[in-house]
Amino acid sequence: MAFNKLCLLVTCALAIAVSVPAHSPQGESVMKPKVVEESGFTVVGIEVRTSNAKEMSPEGLIGKQWARFMQESLAARIPHKADSSVLAVYSDYASDKDGEYNFLIGARVTSAKEVPAGMVVKKVPTGRYAVFTSEKGPVGKVVSGLWQKIWTISKAEPGGDRAYKVDYEVYDERAANPEDAQVDVHIGIK
């Protein structure tokens, strides 16, 4: 995967996603997500605490985390990876999309016995998740577009109210070409 290019495009997507007001033309609906029961898993990576308000300012941290993760080839330092996907995990919400949350970028692992210095372990809990799949296209455009849709849907549309415990994005082989990427966003629901 062209990680440096992916990093740049995802950084742009996040800047767009948090700075463009969410709105949906009347009658427009997000595709119906697939609701899955996730058995839970462990992710190892780098983490920061931020908020969407902070991400709209020059002090935003998510883009910097992506840049660091890619520039320092941190994925290669994570032992016991379950697969080649990169995950972006949003957790420990203070309230909802308007409050602070932790952002971790890393990889799913089969064992967290060896955690590299400067990295943390995060458990993605067992539970119900609404899985939204982006359109195919430039990663910056499709990721920001998908989040915009998620933020505007009704409470019932994802198959349950958002839990605001853990949500995550999966950058798998479908995101190998950042100009023609497809990404899944898993939203924890009650």
Tell me about this structure:
By secondary structure, the protein is α+β, with helices and mostly antiparallel strands. The protein has one domain: Regulatory factor, effector binding domain (Multidrug-efflux Transporter 1 Regulator Bmrr, Chain A). The protein is 26% helix and 32% strand. It contains five helices and eight strands. It has helices at residues 3-19, 52-55, 62-71, 74-77, 139-152, and strands at 34-38, 41-51, 86-91, 100-109, 120-124, 127-133, 162-171, 184-189. An eight-stranded antiparallel sheet has the order 1-6-8-7-3-4-2-5. A hairpin with an 8-residue loop joins β3 (86-91) and β4 (100-109). The longest helix has 17 residues, at 3-19. It is globular and about 40 Å long. The model is unreliable at 1-5 and 11-30 (pLDDT under 50).
Fold topology:
Blueprint: H1 3-19, E1 34-38, E2 41-51, H2 52-55, H3 62-71, H4 74-77, E3 86-91, E4 100-109, E5 120-124, E6 127-133, H5 139-152, E7 162-171, E8 184-189
Antiparallel strand pairs: 1-6, 2-4, 2-5, 3-4, 3-7, 6-8, 7-8
Helix pairs in contact: 1-3, 1-5
CATH superfamily, please? Regulatory factor, effector binding domain
**Distance, first to last CA:** 34 Å
Approximate helicity band: 25-40%
Number of domains: 1
Shape: globular
Number of helical stretches of at least 4 residues: 5
CATH topology: Multidrug-efflux Transporter 1 Regulator Bmrr, Chain A
The sequence of SSEs as H and E is HEEHHHEEEEHEE
What structural class do you assign from the helix and strand content?
A: alpha+beta
Record the strand order, biggest sheet.
1-6-8-7-3-4-2-5
